[in-house]
Amino acid sequence: MTFSKDFLWGGATAANQYEGGVFEGGAGLSTADVMTNGSHTVRRQVTWKKPDGTTGSTPLCFGSPERNLPEGAVPCVIEGDKYYYPSHIASDFYHHYKEDIKMCAEEGFQCFRLSIKWSRIFPNGDDAQPNEAGLKFYEDVFDECHKYGMEPLVTLLHYETPLSLAARFNGWNDRHLVDAYVKYATTCFKRFQGKVKYYLTFNEINCIDEAPYVTAGLIHGEPQNIANAAFHQFLASALTVKEAHENFPELKIGMMLAAGPVYGYTSDPADQLLARKAEDRALFYSDVQMLGFYPNYKLAEYKRNGITLPVKEGDFEILRKYPCDFLSFSCYGSHVVTTHMEDKEAGGGNGAMQRTVANPYLKTNAWGWATDPDCLRITVNTFYNRYHCPIFCVENGIGWNDVFEDNTVHDSYRIDYMRANIQSLKDAEEIDGIPMMGYLYWGCVDMVSNGEGEMAKRYGQIYVDADNYGQGTMKRTPKDSFYWYQKCIKSNGEDLK
User: Fold this and answer.
1) pTM
2) Is residue 64 part of a domain?
3) Cβ–Cβ contacts within 10 Å for residue 421, how many?
4) What's 152's domain CATH number?
5) SS3 at position 226
6) Helix, coil or strand: residue 378
7) Is residue 96 helix, strand or coil?
8) Which of 2, 89, 258, 299 lies at a 20 to 30 A Cα distance from 439?
9) Which residues are known to be catalytic?
10) Any idea what the Cα angle at residue 95 is, between residues 89 and 97, rounded to 5°?
């Protein structure tokens, strides 16, 4: 066995990190648009204003223990030079989409993942009528994809709840967002019918636990609110699947999980149990969206912690009847956990977990991300043997402080990372017999990193001339990895030299 002829090769992006053009075309602000830049030593902040005029900022981003804005504070953009908001410019896809899509086509992409900015379609999230300029922009983007034979894969909500909904309802804590989201999704289905076949409902939905503001627009992210937000997103996803199945049967609606193997550091059974429970934290979200019910281990946890779900009559039946059509996931590497923390180096990577330590067998980059040559194979085995559904790797990549020299970037480290991960996926197909929908490299064009909010942590195979503050020509230049991936795609993954 090898990758099938229908296997989709391509790359992935997200509007809040890539699109820019925040104030153009009648768009409203999102929760991402009030997040400042940072670095791997300085956390990103959310800026806010109180009714008395007091302004400030609070870390409500990945890896931050803080859950709440100050009492009475509303997130907003603070004018002046004190704060820089990277999403406002990002990589300026808004003005460069034709150039970027053409370059991705030259690389051989068959699939291009992007997200729609909800507040570009409905500026306040729940407006009576959609914004025509926003719809037209994405329609033009999809037409450009099809011009080169690329299938768009659209994420409906990728870390940017409309800011108005966050401010008025504490984001997904309120059921009002369920109806607003379904209306938004249905608007997209109608307008982009025949142009988009694959949709994802929520990006890395399980990151609500670690980043409730980023993932669900929660200004106040207490455990009960996180449980409410997760339930409301599950319900919105199921109702979106229902809408598609009943009125747009040609569509395939997927879920999206932040995934990766979790290893116990020692053979101590306590470490192995800790690893299994750490994986449960993520798999709970795919259990609900793929199997249609809340697993007992999660219900027991809620009961222990005094958390009740905001369930109305018929809600559980909707979850049961309308699971997602396929499971997509991000995977950048693995994590190691232990009950023996003494003298251990802290681990890094995507999605901080309690008691995470460094893996002594793996090499890491400057941000602590380790290259694990078996991570994708282990992950897809876990998914397929649990859900027996179509599986799509829609994010996999590595950030690096690239050096632009000789009019390009000589990123052999990125090629080595891609080679190891694609081989891992090949082993899952060839050795384990697990069929895959495709592989999308994350950040195919340089963009702002989500965790750090900086351009210095670059993922792309295409270099963008811009710094951490949006300064530069925005010129696009292929890196060495561009040509390696082009060769890989042309051979359908056979040529990994």
Assistant:
1) 0.96
2) no
3) 26
4) 3.20.20.80
5) helix
6) helix
7) helix
8) 89
9) 204, 395
10) 110
Distance CA 142, CA 198 (A): 12
DSSP lists the bridge partners of residue 335 as 262
Query: Is 383 domain-assigned?
Result: yes
- Output the tens digit of pLDDT for each of the chain's 497 residues: 679 999 999 999 999 999 999 999 999 999 999 999 988 788 899 999 999 999 999 999 887 888 999 999 999 999 999 999 999 999 999 999 999 999 999 999 999 999 999 999 999 999 999 999 999 999 999 999 999 999 999 999 999 999 999 999 999 999 999 999 999 999 999 999 999 999 999 999 999 999 999 999 999 999 999 999 999 999 999 999 999 999 999 999 999 999 999 999 999 999 999 999 999 999 999 999 999 999 999 999 999 999 999 999 999 999 999 999 999 999 999 999 999 887 666 666 554 445 588 899 998 877 777 889 999 999 999 999 999 999 999 999 999 999 999 999 999 999 999 999 999 999 999 999 999 999 999 999 999 999 889 999 999 999 999 999 999 999 999 999 999 999 999 999 999 98
Q: How many helices (H) and strands (E) does the chain have?
A: 14, 18
Residue by residue, DSSP assigns 439-480 as: EEEETSB----TTT--SSSB--SEEE---TTS-S---EEE-H
Cα-only R_g, the chain:
21
Q: 381 phi and psi, to 5 degrees?
A: -60, -45
Burial (Cβ within 10 Å: 0-12, 13-18, ≥19) of residue 214? buried
328, two tokens: 């997509």
In the numeric block, which tokens belong to residue 426?
Answer: 């090949």
3-state SS assignment for residue 120: helix
Pairwise CA distance, residues 481 & 412, whole Å: 7
Cβ pair 172, 212 in contact under 8 A:
no
* Assigned token pair, 287: 């259990």
Number of structural domains the chain divides into: 1
- The pairing of strands 335-337 and 151-155 is unpaired
Domain presence at residue 43:
no
Distance from C-alpha of 165 to C-alpha of 72, rounded to nearest angstrom: 16
Among the listed residues 119, 235, 141, 140, the one whose alpha carbon sits nearest the alpha carbon of residue 187? 119
d(CA 23, CA 29): 8
Residue for token pair 């988009």? 196
Six-digit token pair at 180?
A: 């607003």
Residue 48: inside a domain: no
Domain span including residue 96: 8-38+86-490
